[in-house]
């Protein structure tokens, strides 16, 4: 029977390995990690906008005003064009292209009015339009005869001027280049569009090499700055690589030394690591099968389950080491109950996180539970044969002495006294309530390079380009309806953003086009216009008829990238427009459309998930309490058992907060881990007939955990740092408090 | 037709400046230290398809620190203030409102640079052709020809004429802008006042 099970299990693991080899799909894009909006359509548009933004890199060359900067920038832009890394390299304005696009609008000129002309017409102040025409004739600025003939009231010119509101930057493009002068410095800009994902590691490196090495390669008079998501992502990737190497290598060396020191043999190490590795393969395959892809972040957090699963290995190994006269099967029978209770308790807590609805947490849960289960199965099936007790070396007496001393540590003694645990609950509960101030800011998920941040700030200051990013997202299946919606929204927004120009001001809905045409018809036929032309001694032109087809210019993309920043096109069966909003706009009430503030919204979603996760954790702990009390230990013992990991986690959380670490959703994940491992510790101790010897296994397990998580504190990323601290301190506290459960029994 | 739209594209420019031709250098030397420039102007525009010349007159005020004011008094009242914050316009005595009018900015930039002493700090958009036989009747003259193709499509030349004082260029009195379609705009300055004193509160108020 046992043999059949082993063969079946090995076949299953092989099958999983083949599956993951053929179907692995790892997602490394940090943006995929962010919680999603409830509407799929919103997610689609937001990801399209993000994708467009992420593909942009802004490069700025700075030099003294006397320096001939343009050839240097042109040479560099040419090199980038030839390098093939970028889809588009824009270092100059193609005015011919602009003129061609305006020419497309000319047939519709009598259906297009500027915002101010429209307002004058709506207010019945047609004379204002004539005054504006006269201002143009008699004021500063020039025009030529052809222009007058084509647009005698300059209404179309005023309409076309609105298009410049799409330019975020006020650049000097008189010589075709994109430049500005500030004080005694001149700046030239190049806008690059990536031709691959900003999150492809290989591509990131190539772009970073091409863009960031400028200050070494170009002339010394020129200072280069650049910013873009790809540069931040490249920095984060290199940083993560470095941190993973440090943490991985540090943990590995520590675990190796620990195994060799305690078990004085390589075999337990090889079998334990193989078991955990196979457990990870199964966990990976099941997660991949369940979700279609595995995010690297979920993999990283899921991999922490090795910290839990190694407990099972240590528990068997120390038991075997102390009972070398027994068979492997006897050893496993002695600890099977504790292992199963430990596993079920941890899994129950983990599984609660699926109900939060946060995809990454669900992945972590599935990965962890399946991984733990796999390692447990392997320990139960294979350890008795592969690590027979008789092959173990005698336990080190020094270590056992330490464990004995540890089991009677003063804190555990105090906790055994009646009333101490409830008092501690009360005190820690109140203190947590008093100090708990979580920070859900999504930006703590990454540590931005100070040098890149400084460059971004310098470019933003030079371009007078603010970092505000609030939008009203409007969608409709019908483009004409969408333009009408946008017009209403823009009209409302102009109460607080007077200079806002909407897409519907540039390409109006059919209804508005008809109104515009009718307004111009009235004006052309008015006495005012007749007087205007007679005063000038010019012939009034005739008004062209109403034409269909203006919306097609939007649909077929004839207007090119002019509207790209706002008009998202046709996505998922809907047309979408993003209207930029000020903070005052955000605070208005919006029945139509969705207000998008990605960093703010994501932080809010993180907050929701943190609150939900905390509730789920509390419910899971309560459920576990009920089950353990009902099925096994009774109320009093269960309270003591649960209190050890729960109070350790709470203490660790309070210390994390008091020492200024970042407390967020990931702190709740850390508590989950502390509780998952902690419940194993106390159950193992509770179930053990030789608590001193079990304590050796727990000390070993805790050492590896504290080592691995302690090293995470070296990370530059605030949440990872905090996660490492909370788990490390929490496990230390569990280890310190755990003996309180055995003393009571004895 | 495309030329017409290219001209509108010119609206989107912020034009640089003229070059350091001798006469212009002298003009700028004469304007060094000037804190305030004031003159009356008459603008006369001849446009094909418009039978009557478009004549306007008013006052121009310039301060290197505060910007430029172009106040048309006839045939309608329009005050335009151009400074580092942008272009502001008031019609028929109404309040000043910020407007996006790059065309005005272009002309204002050219005028500001001609009237200021900071010519060496800006890039040249024009070829400078001195008109040597113009030094008659105490006048100097230069011709600015646009360098880049796009601007050439809009402007043929800008002739600048000024007063000579002790054989040195002293001040501008006429600007003639000719465009490719044969239309021209003639701006004549009279009653020029150049001051090197700090501006009074009243003078400063005009720029606000």
Give a description of the structure.
The complex is a heterodimer of chains A (746) and B (208). Chain A is an alpha+beta fold and 746 residues long. In chain A, 65% of the residues lie in helices and 8% in strands. In chain A, the strands form three sheets. In chain A, strands 2, 3, 4, 5 and 6 form a five-stranded antiparallel β-sheet that branches. Chain A has a four-stranded antiparallel β-sheet with strand order 9-10-8-11, sandwiched between helices. Chain A has a two-stranded parallel sheet with strand order 1-7. Chain B has one domain (2-190): Lipoprotein localisation LolA/LolB/LppX (outer membrane lipoprotein receptor (LolB), chain A). In chain B, a hairpin with a 3-residue loop joins β3 (67-74) and β4. The radius of gyration of chain B is 17 Å and the shape is globular. Residues 6-20 of chain B have low confidence and may be disordered. At the A-B interface, α4, α6, α7 and α8 of A face α1, β2, α3 and α4 of B.
Structural class of chain B: alpha+beta
The second-level CATH architecture of the largest domain in chain A is Up-down Bundle
Net shape of chain B: globular
What is the CATH superfamily classification of chain B? Lipoprotein localisation LolA/LolB/LppX
Number of domains of chain B: 1
The radius of gyration of chain A is: 34 Å
Q: Considering DSSP H and I runs of 4 or more, what fraction of the residues of chain A is helical?
A: 55-70%
Sketch the topology of chain B as an H/E string, one letter per element: HHEEEEEEHEEHEEEH
The total number of structural domains of chain A is: 3
